[in-house]
């Protein structure tokens, strides 16, 4: 954590977050059309960097605490923070989470989605579908006066009911001018626990749902997190703002999410 103080964003600041978030979602949508067998994760990274610069934005992950690339590409058993590489060639049946964060006029838009490479297995298809439903249920728990624990409980209850597990080592986070800030948003927990949600709070929900154990390991590159049992993991992420009467998705994926509400 970089700060323990929860910053409430003004309407002007949320408008800036909206611009950053919408552009990040458009980048993710653009990259989705490149996901196919034979493509390397480095090719996805390089196109993301080209597109980002062409649209007057900056890639937040690049050089963030030493991270070497512009996006994260997490394939199959990789939970998060997979580093794009020319050696990693996508193959039919893979699943890949692409995580992008753009800086626009000083504010961050952070979003991710797990895509199918070719034809996925029935298990992979179910895992990704459940992960997206977990995010939807977590978002549905957001409203002024609710507790952070309500979000995690909604996600955990559904994931476990479907036979999957929720990663504990990585959580959602506050975001604004700073990439990672308070509060932390666990994707597991108990209803009625944690800090109370207030209008102006902006944070990510990014559940990482595993086929097997929720335990993870960090590889020697100090970034790539993989499932301990090397079974599949899926993730999806939105940046969200608590509003006076509910929640706004600041990173609406084209064709899937409404600009406001859920």
Written overview of the protein:
The chain has helices spanning 11-32, 41-54, 122-140, 148-161, and strands at residues 58-59, 72-75, 78-80, 95-104, 107-116, 165-166, 172-174, 181-185, 202-205, 208-210, 216-218, 225-227, 233-235, 238-242, 247-249. It has 262 residues and is of the alpha+beta class. It has a single domain (11-248), classed as Creatine Amidinohydrolase. Strands 1, 2, 4 and 5 form a four-stranded antiparallel β-sheet that branches. The radius of gyration is 17 Å and the shape is globular.
Quick rundown:
The protein has four helices and 15 strands. The chain is of the alpha+beta class and about 260 residues long.
Structure keywords:
single chain, 262 residues, alpha+beta, Creatine Amidinohydrolase, four-stranded antiparallel β-sheet, three-stranded antiparallel β-sheet, 4 helices, 15 strands, 24% strand
Write the layout of secondary structure elements.
Blueprint lengths: L10 H22 L8 H14 L3 E2 L12 E4 L2 E3 L14 E10 L2 E10 L5 H19 L7 H14 L3 E2 L5 E3 L6 E5 L16 E4 L2 E3 L5 E3 L6 E3 L5 E3 L2 E5 L4 E3 L13
Antiparallel strand pairs: 1-4, 2-4, 3-12, 4-5, 6-10, 7-8, 9-14, 10-13, 11-12, 14-15
Helix pairs in contact: 3-4
Whole-number mean pLDDT: 96
CATH architecture: Alpha-Beta Complex
The helix-strand sequence is HHEEEEEHHEEEEEEEEEE
Separation of the first and last Cα atoms: 29 Å
Name of the top-level CATH class? Alpha Beta
The residue fraction in helices comes out at 25-40%
Shape: globular
Question: What is the count of DSSP helices, taking H or I runs of 4+ residues?
Answer: 4
**What is the CATH topology classification name?**
Creatine Amidinohydrolase
CATH superfamily: Creatinase/methionine aminopeptidase superfamily
**Uncertain regions spanning at least 5 consecutive residues:** none
How would a crystallographer describe the biggest sheet?
A: 4 strands, antiparallel
Q: Give a count of the beta strands, DSSP E runs of length 2 or more.
A: 15
Task: Count the domains.
Answer: 1
C-alpha Rg (nearest Å): 17 Å
- Structural class, by secondary structure, is alpha+beta
Strand content: 15-25%
């Amino acid at each position: 954590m970089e700060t323990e103080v929860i910053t409430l964003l003004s309407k002007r600041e949320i408008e800036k977050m909206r611009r950053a978030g919408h552009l990040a979602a458009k980048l993710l949508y653009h990259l989705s059309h490149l996901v196919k067998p034979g493509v390397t994760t480095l090719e996805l990274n390089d196109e993301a960097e080209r597109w980002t610069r062409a649209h007057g934005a900056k890639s937040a992950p690049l050089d963030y605490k030493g991270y070497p690339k512009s996006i994260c590409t997490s394939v199959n058993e990789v939970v998060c923070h997979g580093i794009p590489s020319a050696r990693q060639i996508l193959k039919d049946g893979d699943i890949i989470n692409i995580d992008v964060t753009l800086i626009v006029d000083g504010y961050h838009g952070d979003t991710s989605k797990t895509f199918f490479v070719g034809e996925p297995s029935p298990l992979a298809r179910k895992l990704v579908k459940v992960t997206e439903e977990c995010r939807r249920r977590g978002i549905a728990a957001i409203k002024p006066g609710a507790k952070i624990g309500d979000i995690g409980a909604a996600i955990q209850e559904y994931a476990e009911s479907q036979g999957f597990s929720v990663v504990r080592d990585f959580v959602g986070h506050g975001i604004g001018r700073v990439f990672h800030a308070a509060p932390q948003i666990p994707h597991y927990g108990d209803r009625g626990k944690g800090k109370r949600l207030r209008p102006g709070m902006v944070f990510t929900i990014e559940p990482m749902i595993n086929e097997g154990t929720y335990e993870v390991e960090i590889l020697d590159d100090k970034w790539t997190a993989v499932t301990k049992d090397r079974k599949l993991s899926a993730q999806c992420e939105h940046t969200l703002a608590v509003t006076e009467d509910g929640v706004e998705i600041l990173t609406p994926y084209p064709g899937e999410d409404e600009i406001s509400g859920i």
